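Marked as duplicate of an earlier ticket. Keeping the data here for the record.
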Amino acid sequence: MALTDIVKMELGKARNFLFTPKQKEDMMQYLTGNELANHFKDAPEEQRAQLYQRLEHHLDESLRKYSGQLNSWYQSASKAGGIATTIADAYQTLISKVPLTGAQYVPLHNLMVLLKSLAEAPYMYGYFKESKDLVGILKWLGMKPVELAIPILGPLLGTGWTEKIVRQRIMYEAKVNFLKEIGAPVEAPYKALDRHAEAKTGYTIQPKYGGPMPAYA
């Protein structure tokens, strides 16, 4: 994998993290164009169509698996809480002709974030039982200080955050199951970075992330 491809892929991951696709077609486009691009871009058309069907099958399975979380009323309550907090912050900061002092408003802001978090907690508990996604839980907890500390922007970023975590997991599981089916390593070797490291250090790099990419049948 060329260094430019690595940079492009990492930028795609960052963009995907900030603007997580909601529709299945957009998820497929991201996976085939970024996370799994090396499996699709050089494959013959017929083979690429077969790979696309395999990936779509695994994505459908993941979407069904987490449909309960995505359609939960906890999700709706969480979004409503985030929007309400954002609007309250914006009104207090930008519009109110009689703005409250920090000591007066901060407890109200914190209370609204707390109520939103309470609505999210059962949702995230059910999600964790299903997925065992510890990183996702840490992402959720890590957003709480941001929501509490930064008016307007914090609650705005936190709105729909739990849904993003679940949709990220859906794509991740679809990718992993697809790679397992075709017999490929879960993480593609970063050969360009290995060569660069070898040139700088003089040591031979022995990657721990799987062997050569398999030939497709």
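See parent ticket for discussion. The radius of gyration is 21 Å.
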